[in-house]
Amino acid sequence: MKGFNLSQWALEHRAFTGFLMALILLGGLFAYFRLEQREDPEFTFRLMVVKTLYPGATAREVEQQLTDRLEKKLQELPDLDHLRSYSKPGESLIFVVPREETSPEEVADIWYQVRKKIGDIRMTLPQGVIGPFFNDEFGDTYSLVYAFSGEGFDYARLKDQVDAARQQILRVKDVEKADLIGAQDEKIYIEFSDKKMARLGLDATEVAAALQTQNAMAPAGTVYTAAGDLPIRISGAFDSVENVANLAVRVGGRTFRVGDFAEVKRGYADPPEFRMRFNGKDVIGLGIAMNRKGDVLALGKALDATLKRIESELPVGIEVEKIADQAQVVRRSIGEFKRTFFEALAAVLLVSFLSLGLRAGAVVALTVPLVLAATLLGMLLAGIALHRISLGALILALGLLVDDAMIAIEMMARKLEEGWDRMRAATFAYRATAFPMLTGTLITIAGFLPVGLARSQAGEYTQAIFQVVGLSLLLSWFGAVIFTPYLGFMALRPKGAGAGFAHELYDTPFYNRLRGWVSACVEHRGKVILATATLFAVGIAALSRVPEQFFPLSNRPEVVIDLWLPEGSSFAQTEAAAKRMEAVLAKDPDVLNYATYIGGGSPRFFLLIVQQLANANLAEFVVMTGDNGARERVMRRVREALAADFPEVRGRAMRLNVGPPMDYPVVFRVFGEDPAVVRGVADRVAAVMRANPHTVDVNDDWHERIPSLRLALDQDKARTLGVSTASLARALQAYYSGVTVGQLREDDKLIDIVWRAQPRLRTDAGGLPDLAVPAGSGNPVPLSQLVRFETVFEDGVRWRRNRFPAISVRADVTDGMLAPDVAAEIEPALKPILDELPPGYFVETGAAREDAWTAQKSILVWIPLVIVATLLLLMLQLQNLSRTFLVFVTAPLGVIGAAFALLLFRAPFGFVALLGIIALAGMIMRNSVILVDQIEQDEKAGLDTRRAIIESTVRRFRPIMLTAAAAILAMIPLSTNDFFAPQAIAIMGGLTVATLLTVFFLPALYAAWFRVGRREEAA
């Protein structure tokens, strides 16, 4: 950069520069305490669930008459990736999944379109359908979850206390919502005996109708008088259980009290739909969600204070326990990252002090916090929170942001040793290297560009890597040309001058040996280029042998246990199995506490959890252990218990995942037109998967067929007796499941009144043939006279994908194996099955392997843009196509060291490792462009090309090595991090090898490209 010198301007206005530095430091401190802190970055869940109920229908009838009708309309949605659905008896559930590249802003419009299109066809749905209901709030995460329990308190009294606590918690700053979890709905049950009803000559259907009319809320009119309007109110609504029992019912000209022929009692939903337990006790949970702008650490402190006050006011016997505490997790996570950050900072400063000396090293040491402070301020202004990704990006950037400062101060120190005055020495770096440094910085940022532009869930999750690294590197350049010269001017002193002193600095035994090695490379350029090409080919081959991984597992200590009972199992069976597992967990010394969710999955206490929907045959546990070692021991013991003591259960013990949620790590989807053919293919796929030694618990999502009792009605006899299909269905519904005949209005509660048979009658399948059915003549007849009983098996659940019957064959993998590798092992074994598939039938790989490819594709699609941006920057700097090509050729050299490092440390190649390798290209070209620019400057200064190559490499060796060492050492603490380890290891290995190749391969390539003579005499 000629003309204006920014460094000189900063030194000429030292008072302003010092004031600016102080302001930035204060701003950085302010930003640090104001930045939001969370465990993971927010990202948009691209999933909506449409749930519709169709009582009385089989799974097949639900699929044909309801699910297919809805899916056909939803296929018209814009930006739709696919539809998944399942149909169960009486229930349809459709998962709407937009394309990965759909932006968060567009997703909200798609959810609107879903509601609109379903609304358009709502009137065409079958009669009796309830819904559809929409759920697009999958991303809502509870920051804290509390469990309320009370010895001697029933659910109703406990719920009153939790409701009161909820009202106080909603007043806490940044609380967006507070939900009750596992509360049981109250019911009033009127349970009749069919024999007593028969003796009294009562018809259950008529009694139910009479009860419904008694408690109806209806307007009674208004008397309009001259004095004013006088509304008319009629008493008689139920307000207690006694009112219901004493109600007089007139049927068939006779009057009876309800209590004469039925037992009236108050209870809870039976069977329950969902129940929550904590440490073996029935509890009601309270989940608290924070608004998007809140600070979870501040929220945690405020809630702790509020809960202390609430607990002091609770009745004796009610206990409040904390189940999930996002504030504590974030505090621990941020603390670990801070420790890693300061370790990386210490490594960078150690390089500075050891290589540059105390004063020059101190200049770099002071520049780093200035750049970091400016970065934190920029993050605050840009709305970037402190979380797993942004903190990791700060550590990643730490090894890079000192590069410019080290180059500038090293150059200033050299010029001072040559005898230059402080002003001239401090401003020389700007004149000599400011533009190459800026070009190198922008090229490094360009290497992270695909992360910022990736349009996928994985890209959205990791977007802060580009934002933070780009911001910090850009600010580091300004720091190197403004603050570093200022600090160097204040800290360094001239050393004195002597003729030829500049040459003597590089006339040491080490530099002479280095000069000889570089000269040899220039002399034997063909061999060096061939060896490098061979090494690159070996590196590519080695990279293909690195184990694959989509995203790593979380280091959180929780264990999630799923117990799946056979399809069609009752809630009571699921609860019994859950209590048996609770007994196992209660004896485990490594278990701190455990929460049990029966009839569904855990609420979202962790952003990345796979949330299970309501299923009567599911019990899910979230088990808290002391640390990762305890977590592994608990998982081992739970798996042993599942194998030995739970033969009727399909159980899983899992760690939490990082990255976009995924249920099973290995999945193969089979779909086509005919469910029977799909089932046959799926069974063959499952057999291949079971044959692989690295798969565990191979299963499919269609589960087992369930038994049902089919009543074949004799229509002729039924018509003769005055019995219709509808009246028979209503009678059986009232008898076994119950019908709602009114509501008891109690304060702000609405409690359903349910008419049903007594428990011993409802649970006795053998008594079904003798059930008395009301006939048109008024005399009831046994059910066996009207129907023929058949036991049939039907699908418990039927899954579809884009309206094709689809079966997903799933599996876990053995510990130590990575899911994409296991899927890659299975794929060749499936080839015979794929070759025999009929037209219109498909087998697709899903889960980790599919998601990894989708995420990588969203990154790789932007590589051409990176290439164009890099070439444009190189041409701007070098103004020469040949030199641009030379620098560009060095970009892939990082693959060599990265591949060998990943293999050596057994680190997997996945999304984050790919980001590291792409970013490596920019780091390598950064050094290359400065070296090539130096060669060009030396040629302009009068050196012949051969001498310019050698001497420029010798002079640039020290800053190249120092900046590479700083970056590599800064990665060491990050290499132990569960999430960033593959990226850090790839950068460490790649940068180590590529830096050496920059010093030895690039001079050889330069000499070969420009046909530099081998025996030119050095000037």
- Which class best fits the helix and strand makeup? alpha+beta
The geometry reads as elongated
Mean of pLDDT = 85
Euclidean distance between termini CA atoms: 28 Å
State the oligomer.
single chain
Beta-strand residue percentage: 15-25%
Give the % helix: 40-55%
Count of DSSP H/I helices: 35
Low-pLDDT windows of residues:
498-502
Please state the CA-atom Rg, rounded to the nearest Å: 37 Å
Q: What is the number of beta strands?
A: 30
Query: Biggest sheet: strands, sense, closure?
Result: 9 strands, antiparallel
List keywords for this structure.
alpha+beta; nine-stranded antiparallel beta sheet; 35 helices; 30 strands; 53% helix; elongated
Structure, described:
- The chain is of the alpha+beta class and 1019 residues long.
- 53% of the residues lie in helices and 19% in strands.
- It is built from 35 helices and 30 strands.
- Strands 1, 2, 3, 4, 20, 21, 28, 29 and 30 form a nine-stranded antiparallel sheet that branches. Strands 5, 6, 13, 14, 15, 16, 17, 18 and 19 form a nine-stranded antiparallel sheet that branches.
- Strand 2 and strand 3 form a beta hairpin.
- Helix 13 (388-417) runs parallel beside helix 17 (463-491) and helix 20 packs across helix 32.
- The longest helix has 31 residues, at 326-356.
- The protein is elongated and about 120 Å long.
